[in-house]
Amino acid sequence: MLGNIQMDVPFVQAALSGYSDLPMRRMARAHGAPYCLNEVVLDTLVTHKGKTRTRVLRVEPDDHPVGGQLMGAAPDPCARAASDMVEAGYDAIDINFGCSVRKVLRRRRGGFHLSQPEVALDIVRCVYDAVGDRCPVTLKMRRGFDDSADSEPGFFTILDGAFEAGVTAVTVHGRTVAQGYVGPSDWRFLERVKRHIGEKILLGSGDLFSAEACLRMLDQTGVDGVSVARGCIGNPWIFDECSTLCAGRPLPPPPGVGEQGRTIAAHFAESVKVHGARLAARVMRKFGIMYAEHHPCAREVRDAFVAVKSVAGFEAVLRRWYDPDGEWPPVQRRRGYGNLVAAGARQA
Fold first, then answer.
1. What is the spatial distance between Cα 176 and Cα 161, in angstroms, rounded to a whole number?
2. pLDDT band at residue 339 using 50, 70 and 90 as cut-offs
3. What's the rounded Cα separation, in Å, for the pair 298 and 290?
4. Are residues 125 and 179 in the same domain?
5. Which residue in 7, 9, 89, 343 has its CB near the most CB atoms, within 10 A?
6. What is the phi/psi pair of residue 119, to 5°?
7. Mean pLDDT of the chain
8. Structural domains in the chain (count)
9. How far apart are CA 97 and CA 347, in angstroms?
10. Using one digit for the tens of pLDDT, what is the confidence trace for 246-298?
11. How many other β-carbons are positioned within 10 Å of the β-carbon of residue 303?
12. Percent of the chain beyond pLDDT 90?
């Protein structure tokens, strides 16, 4: 589906700053995600020696297919970083023109490029020239920088130019950069984009917090696949659920408390292996807050995870709140973020 990357189902785990590390990707794969992207990384952090470069350029044998999402301000550094990432073993390079974080925009990176199509396309061409003969190059965009008169023409200039340059697929989030995450994602715009590009590959993104929403986006917009972002944080089960619905089978019951606990424990164990015990306790606290949404005692479990400061504290939460033999109220399927929004989660 994405060049030489074959996927049996059209559901992708998106790049999520601060979240989509190796342990999260392993959990997503264990629950049916056919393709995952790493956290977005700055070009200069890849090309300059340091801890980030060492971490980013280590691709584990079980972490395939994996896309390396890259963000930068200028063509040449992006091209050099892309080449280093492909050399390290990434199966695709995804160029980020979608990040809406203010610090990123001030430094003319991410979504800022939607306001300057010429520079954006220079970056796309340079990256493609550097690695396009070795792996698929894809692009992440929003539906424009803002709702000004020039924004939509600029979007289509970049979209068409990217495909002309050789990109394999484009992911479009249905909000503008200026919107951030305020207001609904405009799925009608995704439908227009798909009609415009015809048989070229388009992935849709935005407001995908359930398997039903993922299938609905495919049906309503005609996109070729969906990129699940904030909706899969603390919810790796969404990928199995998407596959079930895609196969025409009824949605299974939501994961019970025991199953939730086993998944969280496995995620925590992976985090300890990757990050070390001390850091894992801190990293997993934010995941625990999101996993808590599935628990029938969501508010209490969330508060328990917030208070975690150590490995022992995290394990104590699992014992107290995820006892498979405990008498728990019925589990209700999560329909959205409700009051437990992952405020730090940024879809890159």
1. 19
2. very low
3. 9
4. yes
5. 9
6. -65, -40
7. 94
8. 2
9. 11
10. 999 999 999 999 999 999 999 999 999 999 999 999 999 999 999 999 999 99
11. 13
12. 93
267 and 140 share one domain: no
Name the H helices within 247-310.
257-275, 277-291, 298-306
Q: What is the CATH number of the domain that holds 281?
A: 1.10.1200
Q: Is residue 34 part of a domain?
A: yes
Contact of 12 with 27, CB cutoff 8 Å: no
Q: Report d(CA 206, CA 181) in Å as an integer.
A: 9
Model confidence, pTM: 0.93
Q: Is residue 126 a contact partner of residue 82, using CB atoms and an 8 Å limit? A: no
The answer to whether the CB of 86 falls within 8 A of the CB of 99 is no
Q: Residue 307: which residues within 8 A CB-CB, separation 6 or more?
A: 313
The CATH number of whichever domain residue 182 belongs to comes to 3.20.20.70
In the block, which residue shows the tokens 């807050």? 289
Stretch 39-46: mean pLDDT, rounded?
96
Q: How far apart are CA 327 and CA 6, in angstroms?
A: 43
Do residue 31 and residue 174 come from a single domain?
yes
Rounded mean pLDDT, 68-84: 98
- Residue range 281-291, pLDDT digits in tens: 999 999 999 99
Within 10 angstroms of residue 338's Cβ, the number of other Cβ atoms is: 10
CA distance 228 to 215: 11
Partners of residue 169 on adjacent β-strands: 138, 201
Domain span holding position 286: 257-321
